[in-house]
Predict the 3D structure of the following.
Amino acid sequence: MLKRNLSILMAFCLAATVAGAAQSPFIGAWQLDSSKSRMPDEMKVESKGGNRYAFDFGGGVETIVADGTDQQGLYGTLLSAKQEAPDTWIVARKKDGRLMLRATWKLAPDGSTLTDYYREFQADGSTVSVSMDYVYKRTGAGESGFAADWQSFKETFNTPYVIEVRTFEGDGLSITNTLQRVTRNVKFDGKDYPNEGPNAAPGATSSVQRRDGRTLVLTDKSNGKVSNTQEIALSPDRKTLTITIGPGGDKTTVMVFERK
């Protein structure tokens, strides 16, 4: 499993209004404005004595020795952590012999914040596909150094993140996430439609409902079970889309897209 569930962040989609798809103001290309968006993340690092640490990136606990070697992680992956300097760690994940992600962690001199330069890689293991920078603050007590419950307060998406929306069978929409390479074809008929594209997960479907004239709710499912629900709001001038997901408060993800 990746350090963060970016598949959720990259699965955000758009939909149509009461008018037919040909007249829908949602059709077009939309680019993420990272400066106006919040994608909060949490990661936990617990010292187990010596050079052993337990990592929890949201998918479960993985305990390894931080010596730079590849060790068994979750979901068939190999996880490694290496201290490059007193204030720098390199955390990496591999699967099937290829590098999936590498994160460079920089600890502030006072230990109160941590900056994570997070990179995911394409199938060749060398070309960066996703580049994000996170800044975390230390929460809780009783830990020091890199061991802490870290809560992000600033997230910067460096990679261009564009969603393209076209018509689908006359009265529906075809939404392509160009970064994730997943397409969602949806209609306002209450039905679940299978996702398409080289990175579409087996059994993944999407459906959409209209809350009001400028607000929609999109529901993703995995093998028939709800995996994600998003509120999608169009600005009055039809130039901005705000997609909101989360439990509320400081853990809510808010992604702001501007029309290209």
User: Anything to note?
Assistant: DSSP finds one helix and 20 strands in the chain. The CA atoms of residues 53 and 118 lie 19 Å apart. The longest strand covers residues 128-139. Residues 6-39+163-259 form a domain with the Lipocalin fold (CATH 2.40.128.20).
